[in-house]
Amino acid sequence: MTGRAGVGKTTVLTRSLNILRDKFSIGGIFCPEVRSGGVRLGFEIVDIATQRRGWLARADVPRCSGPKIGKYCVIVDEAINVGVTALEYALSNCGLIVIDEVGPMELSIPKLKSTIEKVLKSDKDVIAVIHRNLITDVISELCRNQECKVYEVNERNREYLHLEIVKNFI
């Protein structure tokens, strides 16, 4: 699934998961933004199965030791600790794996990137939100030998797209 920022990709994903939760054990990661007083502070990384949380990236890091993506410092240790652990657990124990999202911050961490690639190349059912600037690269790299469906979320389809996505899994 892809689409422009703020169009409703995570909402479509959440609606899909609310239906699929009865059919699958679900694991993986969400990377929601964190705001305070209307200001974006950064992004968390959340383990869907355990609700463990850590920072993926923050704007308020004075001496950034990890990669910088725009004004955000990627917090490598926390992202690996939560994200890689969540995805490895999902690969071993879950019927459906979710990645929200595959974007520049997530892919700037080699260990997390390789784990995301492992998930996307696995024989598991996966729903992934992919940054729109990366969709062509991800599809050409990962969908050569397996079935992939790409949905572009927009204002016209975001209210019902979850039903179309769910049909692929039921």
From TrEMBL:
<dbReference type="InterPro" id="IPR004948">
    <property type="entry name" value="Nuc-triphosphatase_THEP1"/>
</dbReference>
<protein>
    <recommendedName>
        <fullName>NTPase</fullName>
    </recommendedName>
</protein>
<dbReference type="GO" id="GO:0005524">
    <property type="term" value="F:ATP binding"/>
</dbReference>
<dbReference type="Pfam" id="PF03266">
    <property type="entry name" value="NTPase_1"/>
</dbReference>
<keyword id="KW-0547">Nucleotide-binding</keyword>
<keyword id="KW-0067">ATP-binding</keyword>
<keyword id="KW-0378">Hydrolase</keyword>
<dbReference type="InterPro" id="IPR027417">
    <property type="entry name" value="P-loop_NTPase"/>
</dbReference>
<dbReference type="GO" id="GO:0017111">
    <property type="term" value="F:ribonucleoside triphosphate phosphatase activity"/>
</dbReference>
